[in-house]
């Protein structure tokens, strides 16, 4: 089929495109409103997606963890050995890692010194990721140190560090953002080296298979150790925290999309105004078309095609510009601009485009109906 045949096969679309070209300034202004609406919807939606990605990145590695510490009504400040035994009897599907905490100042022969948090553990491999060296599953004599701290103090793997008048050699450097301590500089030692002789543990971390298992373990421990009047242990699950964050971000995203949708509603009103003005100006021309045998359905399709063209043009331009905005947003919030092309983000561009076309067609319904049902004789007189 030739190009000429295609043009005459769709006369409504051909006439609609020609009519939009008659008043290019008016068409451009109406299209600009759609562009702004699409950018508003897509950009705000992608901002919400970037915030969600950032939250998942920050909490994703913690969703399978349950943290246990001394409760408000406990007689001791921490978790006792007996309570640890009870936890091990209750939890059968998770790795249980008790911890003790302290603080010290590390110094070097050159005179450099830095205050660090000290964390004593048994299974370092379960809790820490190393950027160099290794994290032993049974930490007995070695030590781990955050890589930023080692860099500041000029320490390397194999160098000794002193704590409580004893020397420990560094066997691994911990990634600075993967520590389980309060954050920042951290020294990881065998658990017996920290508060040696103390019968209590500052906290116990339980590593489950996934977030659902972590939530189930937390609920089991709550039922086992606590009741309405007595909190023997404080049990917290990061999985429930992420669920709360997800719910908040979903609500925030809906609010952002609602705000962005207002721009497209305003653009739809502008398109409605443009279509009405266009049909009034061309009332005589439409009357001639009806007089020579053009059916009402053809007139209806022509006006609707004009409105659809405005939505498609505005949607395409707005979508392309939105992707540009999304690249910047994901680079700033998530640290990876290419995530903008993933479906969680790209769906807002697709949704904005579809909303633009749908709103434009709806805005053209009344003008199209009015023009199609205008009696030819009265239209010619007008």
Explain the overall architecture.
This protein is α+β, with helices and mostly antiparallel strands and 382 residues long. The chain folds into two domains: 186 residues, no CATH class; 176 residues, no CATH class. The strands form two sheets. Strands 1, 3, 4, 5, 6, 7, 8, 9, 11 and 12 form a ten-stranded mixed sheet that branches. Strands 2-10 form a two-stranded antiparallel sheet. A hairpin with a 2-residue loop joins strand 7 and strand 8. Helix 3 runs antiparallel to helix 8. The protein is elongated, with a radius of gyration of 33 Å.
Name the poorly predicted regions: 1-9
- Share of residues in helices: 55-70%
What is the straight-line distance between the termini? 40 Å
Strand content: 15-25%
The beta-strand count equals: 12
In short:
The protein has 382 residues and is α+β, with helices and mostly antiparallel strands.
Helices and strands in order:
Layout: H1 3-9, H2 11-22, H3 24-59, E1 65-70, E2 79-80, H4 81-90, E3 95-107, E4 113-121, H5 124-127, E5 130-133, E6 143-146, H6 147-153, E7 160-163, E8 166-174, E9 186-190, E10 200-201, E11 203-207, H7 211-225, E12 233-237, H8 238-281, H9 283-291, H10 296-333, H11 343-372, H12 376-381
Parallel strand pairs: 4-9, 6-8
Antiparallel strand pairs: 1-11, 1-12, 2-10, 3-4, 3-11, 5-8, 6-9, 7-8
Helix pairs in contact: 2-10, 3-8, 3-10, 3-11, 8-10, 8-11, 10-11
